[in-house]
Fold:
Amino acid sequence: MTPTLNAVRPLRIGPHTLDAPVVLAPMAGITNTAFRRLCREYGAGLYVSEMITSRALVERNATTMRLIRHHESETPRSIQLYGVDPATVEAAVRILVDEDHADHIDLNFGCPVPKVTRKGGGAALPWKLDLFRDIVTRAARAAEHIPLTVKMRKGIDSDHLTYLDAGKAAEDAGVAAVALHARTAAEFYSGTADWDAIATLKQAVTSVPVLGNGDIWSADDAVRMMATTQCDGVVVGRGCLGRPWLFGDLARALGTPGTAPAPVDATLGFVAAAFRRHAELLIEFFDDEDRGCRDIRKHVAWYFKGYPVGGELRAQLATVSSLAEIDDLLSTLDWSAPYPGAPAEGQRGRQGTPKRPALPENWLDTRSLPESASAELAEAELDHSGG
Structure:
């Protein structure tokens, strides 16, 4: 039986009160303006941009400057930054604030990708606690009236956990909330998220909201996480791939009474219409029909998971180049086919297997950053943004 919450608890992130305590997790190549708008049409919460590299923002990379733009319907505007150098992160935050690009800024310390951790970035960085503290403190100061939050993982591996020290350091630095993906970098996206760690962090960080992330595939999962960990809200990533209406389910389960949208009947026709709407928004975002259709291709398997859509048709949808082609293919489906239940549920997106994290030489020897490591760490500051 799914535990029940004692009461609805509105989530406040700085001056922003959310109708539902739900945050869309940044996903490279996924959470662009088109996908954020689509999720917002179905539900309520805070919808965060793809990860933006602070160095690319400071250098005003053209792709990055496009990615930080929001549609006029998006409010509050939320941007996630990634960086390893305190001065560069601070400068990037000042650009977002001074030029009015965001109403909320999140810092990413959870990336487990080897090319990032190998240089000491992402989920590897909080091991160097002084560096982590410096980045967050300077960023929070630069953010001024804009709430700044932090998203992180449990640590590098089970022997090198960082989340409690990092959570308390972020709280002391003045962040508006802390989010924990309850896996280590070594676990990548495999296995089961350790919700007990979320509960432990909630007991340690008491003055700002603590958000939980990991294995939320349904509204019931979100209710169970909040009830068992007492966290203040949930961060949803892979669970909404091909299911943007999950945010409506979450709003009904967790949101302020009277604000949630009506339940949906996820027939094959409903899913096909959502897929088509997503493609339409991507074309608008890229201002290019071919580019938008190429981007929707990767979503085919997620949208139609468990539905009676044959392999040949799936393959054709994965090669579309125009809305007209999408319409022709979708018209061949049985739109009255009902929601298939369990086959459409559960995990989606990348998972992988546990692996030894790639780290700089002697990274684990000390929690302080030697001066000799600064140059190598700078290489973890990619000059382009996610997506």
